[in-house]
Write a structure and sequence with these properties.
Keywords: Cytoplasm, Methyltransferase, RNA-binding, rRNA processing, S-adenosyl-L-methionine, Transferase. This protein has 256 residues and is α/β, with parallel strands linked by helices. It folds into two domains: 7-187, Vaccinia Virus protein VP39 (Rossmann fold, 3-Layer(aba) Sandwich); 196-255, rRNA adenine dimethylase, C-terminal domain (Helicase, Ruva Protein, domain 3, Orthogonal Bundle). 35% of the residues lie in helices and 20% in strands. The strands form two sheets. A seven-stranded mixed β-sheet has the order 4-3-2-5-6-9-7. Strands 1-8 form a two-stranded antiparallel ribbon. Helix 5 (110-118) links the parallel strand 5 and strand 6. Helix 8 crosses helix 10 (242-255). The chain starts with 12 loop residues before the first strand and ends with a helix. The structure holds S-adenosylmethionine (SAM).
Length: 256
């Protein structure tokens, strides 16, 4: 029976064979890879991926799609909201600490998915995601550009990231209203150690009013933390590098 795409589940199905091949090539799956696909949908990427890896774990929220997927002998289907999935348990089930996570993500919850996976970054070998191009621009954004913000800092701290493929709306059915792209995310081998919650709070405060000098936002926050260092607050949030934010969070943490 034909599946009617459900908007509330962000269902835009890939139909362009050339794009599907290019994404699978970019992922470069190998036999036996402990791979997890988020939102397999109608299996556009699932089928070529499972042909290469042999067995694939898939996470699908849509009950109708999940029951179709369960008919496939080489798939282990987790019928769930990906935001509720414990990836540590998934890794344990696959007897690995090196998960490869892929997916053409539902765009309405793509940022929460990225932050959910950040909790499990130590168990991840790499991630390849189709996302709204504009979100990838923010993820990989460099300081002093409009795209640089909270997402750039918090993800660049833990991942090396690069856009690997541009994907136009007509590659999907139905076509989304926005351009898409595929991003590769590889956890950084030696991230600077810092309290993640503190870094999140600091970055949130810094970018809360990005047009203003940090003196008005972060300056006040640093006072509440009894920070006595020489961090220059006569700048705007977008002028501070990722390493500087991380170093500042580490200093504030050490002072607490
Ligand atoms: N991978 C397919 C493709 O490329 O054609 C489908 C991609 S579609 C953009 C997103 C998929 O994620 C859909 O299958 C949708 O049902 C599923 N999905 C939506 N929200 C989800 C959630 N919270 N957890 C798991 N899967 C979800």
């Amino acid at each position: 029976m034909k599946h009617i795409p459900r908007k509330r589940f962000g269902q835009n199905f890939l139909t362009d064979g050339g794009i599907i091949d290019a994404i699978v090539d970019a992922i470069d799956p190998k036999a036996g890879d402990p791979m997890v696909e988020i939102g397999p949908g109608l299996m556009a990427m699932t089928q070529p991926l499972v042909e290469r890896v042999g067995r694939l774990t898939v996470i699908e929220l849509d009950r109708d799609l999940a029951s179709r997927l369960r008919l496939h002998q080489q798939l282990d289907v987790i019928e769930s909201d990906v935001l509720k999935v414990d990836f540590a348990a998934v890794a344990q089930g696959l007897q690995t600490r090196q998960l490869r996570v892929v997916g053409n993500l539902p765009y309405n919850i793509s940022t929460p998915i990225l932050f959910h996976l950040l909790e499990y970054v130590d168990l991840i070998q790499d991630q390849h995601f189709m996302l709204q191009k504009e979100v990838i621009d923010r993820m990989v954004g460099a300081p002093s550009t409009a795209a640089y913000g909270r997402l750039s800092v918090l993800l660049q701290w833990r991942y090396a990231m690069q856009e690997v493929l541009f994907v136009p709306p007509e590659s999907f059915d139905p076509p989304p209203k926005v351009n898409s792209a595929v991003v590769r995310m590889v956890p950084r081998a030696t991230p600077a150690p810092v309290d993640k919650r503190l870094l999140e709070e600091l970055v949130q405060v810094a970018f809360s009013q990005r047009r203003k000098l940090l003196r008005h936002t972060l300056g006040r926050w640093l006072e509440t933390k009894a920070y006595a260092g020489d961090f220059d607050v006569k700048r705007r949030a977008e002028e501070v590098s990722v390493d500087e934010y991380v170093a500042l969070a580490a200093e504030v943490g050490a002072a607490a």
